[in-house]
Amino acid sequence: MTEEAREALLKASPDTTDSEQDEGGWEGMLEDDLRYLFEMQDFCKPNMRPNYLENDMPLWSDGDHSDAWKPLADFIGQLTGLQDLVWVYASRVPRCVLSVINSVGCRLHMHNFHLSSLVQNRDNLHEIDPDDFALATSPCLHSIIVPISHWDSKGYLDYNEEAQAIRLPRPDWPGFFPGAGVADEHVMGSLQSLIISDSGVPHPEISNWSRRTDFSKLRRLSIQWNEYSRGVITSLQMLKEIAQGSGFKCLHTLVLSLPHGNNRPMQDALISLLGHLNSIETLDLDGFIGSRTLESALISHGGNLRRLRVTPYRQNGTRRPMIEFSEAVVQRLVELCPNLEQVEFPINRTYSDSRETGIYRALSRLSRLKHVLLALKFSIGTVKEAEEVIEETPDDENEEEWCMMIFRDDIPVAADIQDGLKNGAIDSSLALSIFNLISSGSNLRYLKLQIEQTEGPRCDQDLNQMLDWIGRNWVCERDDRGVVSVREFGKKKRVHLPEELKYLEEEQKYFEGGVSPYLTAWNNTWPQTSSVWWENWKSVPLSEEADPDCNVGHNTVS
């Protein structure tokens, strides 16, 4: 991709993000939000949705002729300013195309990297295919995504690999050319970025990576474990041992997603790992992350931390996640991380009261802050909160006994509905007020507000439509001239709602007493003066508005 095209793509990225939010939901927005992590443009990143090969999808095979690819190779050869080429096709890059890529010298990103000739019968080992070897050793190969599947083409689970592994040990890899008589020259790899996702990585694989790759040169590490991952604690301990041996001395970006589970040893292993790493600039922690773990991470790396993203686990039916970002917690960020430039975390909405306003005010004390992403959480219904902190609960205690349970009724009580409407309503005025308050003490350039309802009582379609209508997501940006713009993203999901909402009055007859509790709650929250009642609403303003003198430049709303 040429430099001009890259710039055009970046300029268009806000609109692209809106589209992704409409079509791909939170995953699309998340992909945009994490753009900074590996300093990789969005077009180089893999689709977050899994790839499934269709039966009629053409695949590269030895029988194919490279002549069919020559027009593409010739076209690439004419792009003298090409900097990046992304190969998403389900098979390897043809040799003629690879030769041109090597000649042009652009970065090659492969989303389906697979060396098929390395899949071999244990009793009939053979040399790697020359084309596979050329691809693996290409100086232009910049990033690879290696898909792993444990299913056959029909979707059936295939346990043959596991069954044979129990009986027969896996032999050591003999190298690319086992029959050459001379061992391959052992050269340690020098990866700068390593991303391991989906099923996580067992500790033997981490050990294998450490033997093949010089981890002292690794700059970015991402490991995504999930509830099916095994040996997470052992893996964390092995990563700590690598760190103790100066294996991560260049690491500046760490992304870890831990599976939820009531397991203090896992938290202890993570704390120990964080304590043995050199100063991290970008830290992204997702999943089963407790307050003690976050505190340890901030103490170890806060002084050097520039970007922080924390998405703590929240049990269904809870008001509070494992880490509740209150004003006190954010103030701790201010004390330990004075150089933060970008933050992302969830907060609980509390009617724009002094508690919620205090969070935004605390963020304003991060003087270097430029980029903020907040997931605004709210719930409807009565929640019973546990007295004990989740991370301190014994490992063998039943999850149902320690989680903060919610009591569900068919229809929430009127007061709960009104509370939900107040917390769920986000208009442009509130978004701008939050931006102005946070930016009052910082050089904030970008604020994204994403409203999200947590698990609660069963809400029927009427209430959900109301919440979707008033629960709007906003991006506030300050340009180089100091002009602050406010724009809504994700509009497509609600454009049809007025046609649905106008019929709610007619449908009241289906409720007990002929009165809709949802319309009653709406009218009590926002007394109506027009038949177009759904247009008459507004957010609860912040309890303490930002000083008007902090409003730099002119404000525009779109």
Short description:
By secondary structure, this protein is α/β, with parallel strands linked by helices.
Label this structure with key terms.
18 helices, alpha/beta, globular
Straight-line distance between termini:
32 Å
Q: Summarize the main sheet.
A: 11 strands, mixed
Shape: globular
Low-confidence stretches: 1-40, 48-63, 150-168, 384-409, 546-558
Counting DSSP H or I runs of 4 or more residues, the number of helices is 18
Give the helix/strand class: alpha/beta
Mean pLDDT equals 77
Estimated share of beta-strand residues = 5-15%
The count of strands amounts to 14
Helical percent range?
25-40%
As a whole number of angstroms, the C-alpha radius of gyration is 27 Å
Main sheet: strand order: 4-5-6-7-8-9-10-11-12-13-14
What does this structure look like?
The chain has about 550 residues and is of the alpha/beta class. It has a domain at about 75-165. The chain contains 18 helices and 14 strands. Strands 4-5-6-7-8-9-10-11-12-13-14 form an eleven-stranded mixed sheet. A three-stranded parallel sheet has the order 1-2-3, with no helix packed on it. Helix 7 (about 205-210) runs parallel beside helix 8 (about 230-245). It is globular and about 85 Å long. The model is unreliable at about 1-40, about 50-65, about 150-170, about 385-410 and about 545-558 (pLDDT under 50).
Write the layout of secondary structure elements.
Blueprint: H1 3-24, H2 26-33, H3 70-77, E1 84-87, H4 95-104, E2 107-110, H5 130-136, E3 141-144, H6 160-167, E4 193-196, H7 203-212, E5 220-224, H8 232-244, E6 253-258, H9 264-275, E7 282-287, H10 291-301, E8 307-312, H11 327-336, E9 342-348, H12 354-363, E10 371-378, H13 399-402, H14 414-424, H15 428-439, E11 446-453, H16 461-470, E12 473-478, E13 484-489, H17 497-501, H18 517-525, E14 555-557
Parallel strand pairs: 1-2, 2-3, 4-5, 5-6, 6-7, 7-8, 8-9, 9-10, 10-11, 13-14
Antiparallel strand pairs: 11-12, 12-13
Helix pairs in contact: 1-2, 3-4, 7-8, 8-9, 9-10, 11-12, 12-15, 14-16, 14-18
